[in-house]
Amino acid sequence: MTTPRFSFAVLACVAVAAGTLLVADEPVYDAWSWLVWGRELAHLGLDTTSGPSWKPLPVVLAAPLSLAGEAAPELWLVLVRTAFLLTFVLAADLAYLLTAGRPRPLRLAAAAFAVVSLVLLSDAGWSRQVAGGMSEPLLVALVLAAARAGLAGRGRSALVLGALAALVRPEAWPLLVAYALWCWRRDPHVRPLVLVVGVGVPVAWLAPELLGSGGGGAERAQRGTGDPRETLRRAFVLPIALVWPLALAALRERAARVLAAGAIAWIAIVAAMTLIGFPGLSRFVAPPAAIICVLGGVGLAAVLVNRRPRGAAGAAGAALAVAASVALVFTVPGLPDRVSELRAGWRTSARASESQDRVRALSRAVGRDRLLRCGRLATSDTLVRTALAWQLGVPLSHVVSFGEPPRLSGAFVVDLEARPRLRKDMHAVATQIGRVGEWRAYSIDCPATELVGGPQRGRLGRG
Q1: Are 290 and 424 in the same domain?
Q2: How many structural domains comprise the chain?
Q3: Which residue has the higher pLDDT, 408 or 432?
Q4: Which residue, of 286, 310, 316, 397, has the greatest Cβ tally within 10 A?
Q5: DSSP 54
Q6: CA–CA separation, 229 and 48 (whole Å)
Q7: In terms of Cα–Cα distance, which of 241, 153, 156, 154 is closest to 190?
């Protein structure tokens, strides 16, 4: 794709992404955390003692966005959703590149198949990740862009894009190392960049965590109960069964084999990481799944162009065509359900946005000083902790969550989904000071040893 066309595609994606804010305009838990950390990074005061696992690239991107104040969350969502839309552009362009030498209609068919399969790859959970501003859309876009640059002979660009992907997910590290070593041997002029990447990526992961919390991010990421078999099932049982036989047909080309090897290696790394406690979530295998979708489009072009070959090649092509036809028969009936799942994901995001709007409206109505008068704010809902920290302008550690009335907080925010016993207890021990929709704010007497005032870091623990 030429630079003017890609620039136009980027602008179009930005416009569409901005339009989606009319449907859902609230980030999810992790994204709010990155915005809080980005704000702290911009002001040179990072505190990572609480929150999700550390990811360098999202925080670095969130830092300048945080300077936009209340517009920062919407800007972050536009950034992530633009990246998501660009994955379709990049997948189509990569499939078109890999089918060079084929008739143009077949190349366009390959690009279209890659896009459609990538769209249908997205289930309701993936839609929620996109709508809520998670980092995986950025990751998939970077991986596809890196693959495109590498196949086009732009080694430096591919290395930089790969390094950026490695700043989002650790599964990219082994593949980045392999590609960096290949670049080192192939082109002496790229060796300084290899050294920068080799030092910069580990430092970006380790230094902020050590300075901001003394470590602990890896431990938080290892709280999952991963199962490698479940990870493999999610990776290999793609929503479109047709993709796999067509992807096999693409392996006649060396470039396709390299991409397939990288995709399988990524899946294996995710599965292996579950053995040491990391969760094997489906979004972690989104990048290799996107590559497989591209290879499916390439395989489609290969099957169509070789529909009448003779000999062993003809038999193999015929077998793949039969397998693709059978897969198509089993795939088509499920397509309406896939589309419904996509719509359901965005509806869920829209409802979550409305609920978060109300809890933030509650915090504004009650007031920052009143909510933080004992140093910390407590909430019954863990998922709104980070949004409240952003709203109140405090570190993540200053908003804590409880399943029972806290003893060391001056206020407690409770929603209607909290346990009935908890809501009953709050009526008995606290005074309601605010209400917006399903959310309630209660005032609790400060402990006698605590002074009334602003946040006091490190003094208060869980109740």
Answers
A1: no
A2: 2
A3: 432
A4: 286
A5: -
A6: 32
A7: 156
